[in-house]
Amino acid sequence: MRVLLHACCGPCLLEPFDALEEHEVEVFFANPNIAPAEEYAQRRDALKVHAESNGIAWSETEYEPSLWSEAVAGVEQDPGERCPRCFLLRMRLTAREAAAGGYDAFATTLTVSPYQDQDAIRAAARSAAEEAGVDYLELDVADRYQEATRRSRELGMYRQRYCGCEPSIAEAEETRRRLREERRDRSRYTTR
Prior knowledge:
alpha/beta, 192 residues, 5 strands
């Protein structure tokens, strides 16, 4: 089966790509959500280097951040609303590309991350598949996240510190700050 695999970044490509080894897979980088443009280029280039050094066919859409802005207009600061819309945008881009390219199905690397809303990803992908008239090949690879992390570090891949969109930069920093405080509080109680 020919599968178009949406990839959000190089590290998240590793395990989902391997999970599809029985298929003919081409990678598709479609992420207008990533900001700023320099971050987009770093993520794309990390994926490109890995793909090209391993003989993996890949392509990308034109970087159009305005597509993301339009898709999430009015809900930018609400991840519960923003993220499903972002998933739908990227899944629509991938499903349309898969249909136009005559692929049998499409899948996404987003399913490897335990930090993403897996139900929202599946719903977006199924909706996009129905709209485009192409099958969605659901990957259940979240249990491979730690291995993807280990491998990407071992390979020296660029690893991002936030999901991709501008609002997620501050959200990720707030999460890291909260976790640091929790560790500091726990260490205070264990040293007494």
